[in-house]
C-alpha cells in the first residue's frame, strides 16, 4: 500500500519560551516490508541548530535547538511510504515457545543477540506478576509461539477497554492492568510484559495506522494519532512478527513504522527542555491516507 502521511504537532505556551531543545522520533524508517520514498520535517520557529542521528536501535532522531523567543512551536512531517510487511508463516507451524525462550537465553550465548536484549525489564515495562499469570493462559506447554502470541493479542483486545484519558504515561503498568483500560501504548506495554515474563523477546513499535477515508472502511482504533503495537521474535524462520493488540491485527498493510525500542520511553515522538513558557497546551493531527496498492 502506498501512503501519504501528514503528522503535525503544535505546542502553545502561556508565556514566552526563550530557548528550547527538542528530540524527535518522527522519521519513518526503511526495512524489509517498508520503503520511505520521500520525507520532510519542518519546524516553526526555524531552529538555530538541527542535527540528525541514528539511535541504538537504528531509529532516526532529529535534534533541534531553538534560540528565538516564541509562544508556539510547530513541527510537521510529510512523507510518502510504501508498506507490505511479509506474511508470517502459519501460526501452528512456528516453533514451541519454550524453544524460542531457550535460544534467547542460550546458556550465556543467546541467539540471536539482537533479539535477546528485548527479553528484559525496561523503564515502563517492569515485571508484573499478574501479567505473567495473564500471559500463562495463552502460553501453555508446547504451544507454537505465534499461535500463543496471537491468542494473547486477541485476549487483550477483548479484555481491555480503549479509553483515551483513562491513563497517562506516568500510570504504572500494574495499575493499567488492574483497570483494564487505556490506549494503544498501554495495550502494547501490557502485551510486552506478558511476553517478557515468559522469557520471550518483545519490542515496542511506534508509528501510525491507516486513517479511515470512506464509510465502507473498517474502523481502526488509534487512527488519526500516533499508534503503537508489539513486535515479537518468533525464531529465525518467522523473524519479528508485528501484532497490534489495540485492533487484534497482524500488521501487514495498515501500519507504518516510525521507530522501535524497549518501550515508549525509547521512542517518544517528541520530548525536550524549554526555558520559560509556564503552562502549555498541545494538539496533534495525523492522517495516513492510502493512495494505491503497492506492486
Structural write-up:
- By secondary structure, the protein is of the alpha+beta class.
- It has 2 domains: 2-83 and 269-292, Immunoglobulin-like (Sandwich), CATH 2.60.40; 91-267, C8orf32 fold (Roll).
- It is built from 7 helices and 14 strands.
- The strands form 3 sheets. Strands 1, 2, 3, 4, 5, 13 and 14 form a 7-stranded antiparallel β-sheet that branches. A 5-stranded antiparallel β-sheet has the order 11-10-9-8-12. A two-stranded parallel ribbon has the order 6-7.
- A hairpin with a 5-residue loop joins strand 3 and strand 4 (60-66).
- Helix 3 (129-136) packs across helix 6 and helix 4 runs antiparallel to helix 6 (184-196).
- The chain is globular.
- The termini are close together.
- The mean pLDDT is 93.
CATH architecture of the largest domain: Roll
Mean pLDDT: 93
Q: What fraction strand?
A: 35-45%
Q: Given the C-alpha coordinates, what overall shape results?
A: globular
CA gyration radius, whole angstroms: 20 Å
- Total tally of structural domains: 2
Major sheet characteristics: 7 strands, antiparallel
The tally of helices reads 7
Question: What is the CATH topology of the largest domain?
Answer: C8orf32 fold
According to DSSP, the number of beta strands is 14
How do the helices and strands follow one another from N- to C-terminus? Answer: EEEEEHHHHEHEHEEEEEHEE
Estimated helix fraction: 10-25%
Q: How far do the termini sit from each other? A: 8 Å
> Structural class of the helices, strands and pairings?
alpha+beta
What is the name of the CATH class of the largest domain? Alpha Beta
Low-confidence stretches: none
Amino acid at each position: 500500500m502506498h501512503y501519504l502521511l501528514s503528522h503535525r504537532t503544535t505546542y502553545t505556551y502561556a508565556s514566552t519560551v526563550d530557548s528550547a531543545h527538542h528530540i524527535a522520533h518522527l522519521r519513518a524508517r526503511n526495512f524489509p516490508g517498508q520503503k520511505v520514498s520521500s520525507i520532510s520535517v519542518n519546524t516553526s520557529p526555524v531552529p538555530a541548530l538541527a542535527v540528525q542521528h541514528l539511535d541504538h536501535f537504528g531509529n532516526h532522531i532529529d535534534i533541534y535547538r531553538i534560540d528565538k523567543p516564541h509562544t508556539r512551536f510547530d513541527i510537521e512531517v510529510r512523507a510518502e511510504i510504501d508498506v507490505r510487511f511479509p506474511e508470517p508463516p502459519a501460526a501452528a507451524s512456528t516453533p514451541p515457545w519454550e524453544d524460542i525462550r531457550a535460544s534467547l537465553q542460550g546458556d550465556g550465548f543467546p541467539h540471536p543477540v539482537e533479539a535477546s536484549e528485548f527479553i528484559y525489564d525496561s523503564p515502563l515495562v517492569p515485571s508484573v506478576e499478574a501479567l505473567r499469570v495473564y500471559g500463562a493462559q495463552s502460553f501453555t506447554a508446547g504451544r507454537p509461539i505465534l499461535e500463543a502470541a496471537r491468542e494473547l493479542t486477541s485476549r487483550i483486545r477483548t479484555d481491555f477497554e480503549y479509553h483515551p484519558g483513562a491513563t497517562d504515561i506516568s500510570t504504572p503498568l500494574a495499575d493499567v492492568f488492574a483497570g483494564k483500560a487505556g490506549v494503544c501504548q498501554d495495550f502494547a506495554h501490557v502485551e510486552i510484559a506478558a511476553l517478557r515474563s515468559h522469557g520471550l523477546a518483545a519490542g515496542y513499535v511506534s508509528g501510525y495506522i491507516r486513517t479511515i477515508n470512506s464509510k465502507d472502511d473498517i474502523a481502526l482504533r488509534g487512527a488519526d494519532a500516533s499508534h503503537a503495537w508489539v513486535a515479537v521474535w518468533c525464531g529465525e524462520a518467522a523473524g519479528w512478527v508485528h501484532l497490534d493488540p489495540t485492533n487484534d491485527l497482524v500488521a501487514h498493510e495498515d501500519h507504518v513504522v516510525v521507530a522501535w525500542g524497549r518501550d515508549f520511553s525509547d521512542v517518544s515522538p517528541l520530548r525536550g527542555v524549554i526555558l520559560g513558557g509556564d503552562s502549555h497546551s498541545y494538539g496533534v493531527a495525523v492522517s495516513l491516507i492510502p493512495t494505491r496498492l503497492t506492486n
